[in-house]
């Protein structure tokens, strides 16, 4: 039996100069029995790979309950009350939660690689070296975006505190508005799908640097990771078969999204992950949606967490996660 629960809407701060609105919705799509896994995700790239599975759950082909959230704080609150069994969240947040809960979270898969891009309204930035002396607008102060920007600048011989001016804003829409009003001199670092949304409204905006490529070039093989799948440890233990089935279903959903951008984009709009299918379809190739589990996941995540820890231990919750953090069913 299908139950459609109320949808709670909370609008993101939207600058008046923009002609588009990226709305942050919390939706609940429920179907199935009481033993169905309750799955959460954040608006944006970390939820995109789930949409085929969400559709199957809504039509009765799969037995899951889904919730889409507008902010990490909402997800943390739901996990703390054990309302969620699994969730797609920023990868470093999974480590923070593992430490905060004293080991009650498991990292099950990486679902999104890098989504950050340096964009500009002019044509002055052809390489990282060209950022020297510039002002860069960005979001994500104290989080992964700041780590990425500072690391890439430093590794390229640019002092982020002396050689550039970094102005952090609270919302990507605010950054996009600043770029629209700054004429031909604006430079910013934005995540997808905001890059695509902004460019579709301002034809002066162009992608100058793919920060995933820039990160990979200076990080000694430590891949840039954005999102992951985290599962409560007690759920992994008590519902092992359901978790294994979910992982297989999720992998299949990601494959669908990778191979069917047009159909996936319609579902992404339908579930309010991105407000317009046109934005989603154009942004998808640059969102680096993946499904990486097992030992490869562990290797990539460990290297990534080590680099974050070197930058600031707080970004991973104060210490690196222990071995039991990684969901490796084949090894058990």
Characterization of this structure:
There is one protein chain. The protein is an alpha/beta fold and 332 residues long. The protein has two domains: 2-113 and 224-331, D-Maltodextrin-Binding Protein, domain 2 (3-Layer(aba) Sandwich); 116-218, D-Maltodextrin-Binding Protein, domain 2, CATH 3.40.190. Helices cover 39% and strands 23% of the residues. The chain contains 13 helices and 14 strands. The strands form two sheets. Strands 1, 2, 3, 4, 5, 6, 7, 13 and 14 form a nine-stranded mixed β-sheet that branches. A five-stranded mixed β-sheet has the order 10-9-11-8-12, with helices on both faces. Helix 5 (144-155) links the parallel strand 9 and strand 10 (165-168). Helix 5 crosses helix 8 and helix 11 (261-270) packs across helix 12 (277-283). The protein is globular. The model is unreliable at 1-26 (pLDDT under 50).
List keywords for this structure.
332 residues, alpha/beta, D-Maltodextrin-Binding Protein, domain 2, 2 domains, 9-stranded mixed sheet, 5-stranded mixed sheet, 13 helices, 14 strands, disordered N terminus
